[in-house]
Amino acid sequence: MAKVELVHVCKSYNGKEDVIQDLSVSIEPGEFFVLVGPSGCGKSTILRMIAGLEAITSGELLIGGIKVNGMPPSERNLSMVFQNYALYPHLTVEQNITFGLHTKKISKQEQKKRCLEAAEMLGLTDFLKLKPRQLSGGQRQRVALARAIVTHAPICLMDEPLSNLDAKLRSKMRSEIRQLQRRLGITMIYVTHDQVEAMTMADRMMVLNEGRPQQIGAPLEIYNHPSNIFVASFIGAPPMNLAKAKVLESSLLFNSERVMRLHHHLPSSQQQVIVGVRPEHIRLADTGDEYFIAEVVNVEVLGTETLITFELTKTEHWIARWSGQWNVHVGEQVPLFIDETAFIFFHEDGQRLNHPVSSYVASGEERK
Amino acid sequence: MNTPLPVQPPASVQIRRKRTMRTTLEGITYLLPSLILFSIFLFYPMLRTMYLSVYLTDYQGNPVQFVGIENFVYLLKDVNFLQSVKATLLFVCYTVPTSVFLALCLALMANEKLKGIGLFRTCFSSTMGMSVAASSVIWMFMYNPSIGVINKVLSLFGISDVQWLLDPKIALVSVAISTIWMNTGFTFLILLGGLQNIDPSLYESARIAGVSYLYQLRKVTLPLLSPTLFFVTTVSLIHSFQTFGQIDILTKGGPMDATNVIVYSIYKDAFINYNFGSASAQAVILFFAILVVTFLQFKFGERKVHYQ
Ligand SMILES: Nc1ncnc2c1ncn2[C@@H]1O[C@H](COP(=O)(O)OP(=O)(O)OP(=O)(O)O)[C@@H](O)[C@H]1O
Ligand SMILES: [Mg+2]
């Protein structure tokens, strides 16, 4: 097990603009750390810098407390799983798995033993003599995993390893990888653009956008307390509902059309804010609730839940998520209720505003 | 499940047959232009050559008397022809392995990601853009014993007066060297293309595994390049058997028939001695020799090729 630390790391490919800007993060031994962000935000670049495949422009990279900026990849004692698996097409599965082990002074017997062990673990025993092209996508994926396991490296890097698989296999491999990591106790740095993968697999995750780290934390913490509107809209499906609003004494005014009265939780200092509400916090009003009426513009019944798109204002649509199957029709006027504690306020520039009673909100939401 | 297929009603069979006819005709129509060209310039001359090889001919190349395999029997006893065979085989052995190996080394170097590598790539492949005639003339000047640059340079090291094209011992080597130079461009370009086709993540994976350069070359690069290498070797081999231009310009088959390879000998027999029958017989022998070599290469060489 080894700790991986990045200290003020910057990366520039062409010497002009930075692809990665001032990234500092410390990844604990044995942790499952996920890098998540939209396409082109620099996730692969970070991973490749840690692997040593890409030079670091400035800043420091420490593995196990030792500065490794100039160290060649093979001496960093890590393994990597590539997006396209990078299997050697002319070698058998077994040769692929044991490729390069001889450089670590491992005897032929030990190589064989480790290979069988890994194959056993991943259910590849029957395929050891086949070539990669004779395997299915999921099996190839497992060969790539096996190759990472046999090195017994304490750190494993994965770059979108599941993106070539279909949805069903993906969720299966997700839990397999997670279990494997727990069993072996390795430090995992995992890149994905899929926020579901990030939420379900990570011990901690880092959300990236345009080369800048947006927020680092446990998945639920990020989900519940997004630090800016980018994180709020990137994490969660459907994303958090966001809308600009004016603060008028004790109410919010949306686009001078809709007013919502709040009693306690208004941000005090701001005139203009961006209001965010998770879809699951918008529910059908009970009697006695202070409800508002909105027109339904779309309904998606997904079996376990129903997504209801409604008109917040003429130009803005919000989504409510109700569990169960609801018989709501497009065009219907429904009374809706949002708990005051569910509102999250952002500054106009997108940063989260300090909520007066955020601790209360936190405990209230984590209960469920 | 094993019920026999119902017998097709005759009408539908006819329709289907008509349709197959139509598609066949359509296919032939598309092939027609190249079929015509091939027939005029390739198949007809080939058949004509085979036909002539069993005849004695007059000076215009008209068959006079059927002699069967006599032309061949005569050739196999003829010292000059056997010398041609020897020269050809030597020439192939000199040029093919060397030019493929040289081009491979250059391609491996040019495949590195370095600043200004494009310049080297252009240089290495530039001989492809030169005609055989032009480059032969250049080499002729360079080989010239009195004004040639090669002897000038050698004289700095105290070696003097090497008769590159006039000494029967080295004339074939000299022609081979110039041929290697001419072939390298094409071979290099194809091999470089093959190298660039290899997925870079395979190399990255090897870097993380930490294998040495030679191990990577042996276990990753060469196996993945093997289809390209196979292609290049086959083409070079055929090409080398058919060398004509540089021999005609540099040595005219001399000195003492040292560079009189089969193709040149065919040319001399046919168009200088007007002995078309014998020339045709040589051409037929060359054809079958190339056929057999290529066949053997496919049979034994292709086993080591990893198609992806
Ligand atoms: N070799 C390179 N040379 C120049 N620019 C590059 C190179 N590789 C990546 N970039 C740039 O760096 C930025 C980040 O790329 P990167 O591959 O890290 O994105 P990513 O987050 O992995 O995206 P994806 O999810 O699509 O894989 C992109 O804007 C890309 O154009
Ligand atoms: Mg990427």
TrEMBL record, chain A:
InterPro entries recorded: AAA+_ATPase, ABC_transporter-like_ATP-bd, ABC_transporter-like_CS, ABC_transpr_MalK/UgpC-like, Mo/tungstate-bd_C_term_dom, NA-bd_OB-fold, P-loop_NTPase, Transp-assoc_OB_typ2
MF terms in GO: ABC-type transporter activity; ATP binding; ATP hydrolysis activity
One Gene Ontology cellular component annotation held by this UniProt entry: ATP-binding cassette (ABC) transporter complex, substrate-binding subunit-containing
Domain ABC transporter: 4-235
Membrane-crossing residue ranges in chain numbering: none
Alphabetized UniProt keyword annotations: ATP-binding, Cell membrane, Membrane, Nucleotide-binding, Translocase, Transport
Stored PANTHER family: MALTODEXTRIN IMPORT ATP-BINDING PROTEIN MSMX, TREHALOSE IMPORT ATP-BINDING PROTEIN SUGC
Protein name in UniProt: Carbohydrate ABC transporter ATP-binding protein (CUT1 family)
TrEMBL record, chain B:
Keyword Cell membrane: yes
GO cellular component annotations of the record: plasma membrane
Pfam families: BPD_transp_1
Signal peptide bounds: none
Gene3D superfamilies, alphabetized: MetI-like (1.10.3720.10)
Record InterPro entries: ABC_transporter_permease, MetI-like, MetI-like_sf
Primary localization class, coarse: membrane
GO biological process: transmembrane transport
This protein's UniProt keywords: Cell membrane, Membrane, Transmembrane, Transmembrane helix, Transport
Topology with respect to the bilayer: Multi-pass membrane protein
Segments crossing the lipid bilayer: 27-47, 87-110, 122-142, 170-192, 222-241, 279-298
Domain called ABC transmembrane type-1: residue spans: 85-297
Subcellular location(s) of the protein: Cell membrane
UniProt family annotation: Belongs to the binding-protein-dependent transport system permease family.
Entries under PANTHER family matching the protein: ABC TRANSPORTER PERMEASE PROTEIN, INNER MEMBRANE ABC TRANSPORTER PERMEASE PROTEIN YCJO
Protein name, UniProt field: Carbohydrate ABC transporter membrane protein 1 (CUT1 family)
